[in-house]
């Protein structure tokens, strides 16, 4: 399968992706759209004329309430939605919680927020996506998907020792597998789904990292000042691939793929030292189907 290339690069901004694109009449939901990459995604989509709903835990103005770690909140959001949805950008996320935290229903909180809540939201809005005729789902994943496959035996760290990065990594692998699953299961509804990693961007996401970890990843100097290495992106650049996948005509009909720096990524072996690409375990169709079944059962039971 030929990899998709676009004229854009790592430093392209979200607004630049949409130059000349008219999104008037397109209704788009962005989870976590009140901060960081999500906020810039919202700005760019609105700038091109889309009707964007910001779904956030603490809504103000015309934002809508959504707590992804609470299926009651997800169901209330779904119940309150009428009419078509042209795109869902599954952007909200939390990273590397230092200790194992669980949602009210007992789910490990990163898996609950980053994956299972989004699964419930997207499947809850299936009919609304179908109504759009050509809806898109964008899963905001991470380079962390290279670090761990989905652990079907113990997704909630009930039997293995909790590890902040393993928990984040598996949730981000699950996000990619969901895009693959949607591509496999909902093509007849006209729905396409793709995933991407935004790169490194200073946002609130890093709030759970201690100074030693920030230094280890090159994001802080010895005096405790934030450092911005050359390979870091601004939030406007970090949002570019989100907008590309949600709304660019260049992606019409493209589905089940993973992008990085606005290009389709190479499928690679995952592991601790692999620098780039998408892990084979993140795009494995058998794992996508197994995860689909797991998530359907899990979200139906709670
Ligand atoms: N920044 C990076 O370098 C980087 C790298 C790779 C991947 N990513 C991914 O990019 C996405 C956006 O992150 P960001 O960097 O922009 O960080 P951010 O500014 O912290 O944004 C994350 C958003 O998720 C929302 N959120 C958290 N828990 C939620 C919940 N239970 N229900 C609903 N919303 C919830 C947050 O809302 P609140 O304001 O309520 O907390 C926040 O708006 C994430 O999925 C992240 O994993 C980021």
Question: If you had to describe this structure to a student in words, what would you say it looks like?
Answer:
Belongs to the short-chain dehydrogenases/reductases (SDR) family. GO terms for molecular function: oxidoreductase activity. Keywords: NADP, Oxidoreductase. The chain has 302 residues and is an alpha/beta fold. Helices cover 35% and strands 14% of the residues. It has one domain: Rossmann fold. The protein is built from ten helices and twelve strands. The strands form three sheets. It has an eight-stranded mixed β-sheet with strand order 3-2-1-4-5-6-9-10, with helices on both faces. Strands 7-8 form a two-stranded parallel ribbon. Strands 11-12 form a two-stranded parallel ribbon. Helix 4 (109-124) packs parallel to helix 6 and helix 4 packs across helix 10 (285-301). NADP nicotinamide-adenine-dinucleotide phosphate (NAP) binds next to helix 2 and strand 7. NADP nicotinamide-adenine-dinucleotide phosphate binds at residues 31-32, 34-38, 56-58, 66-69, 91-95, 113, 140, 142, 197-198, 200-201, 203-205.
Short description:
With 302 residues, the chain is α/β, with parallel strands linked by helices. It has 10 helices and 12 strands.
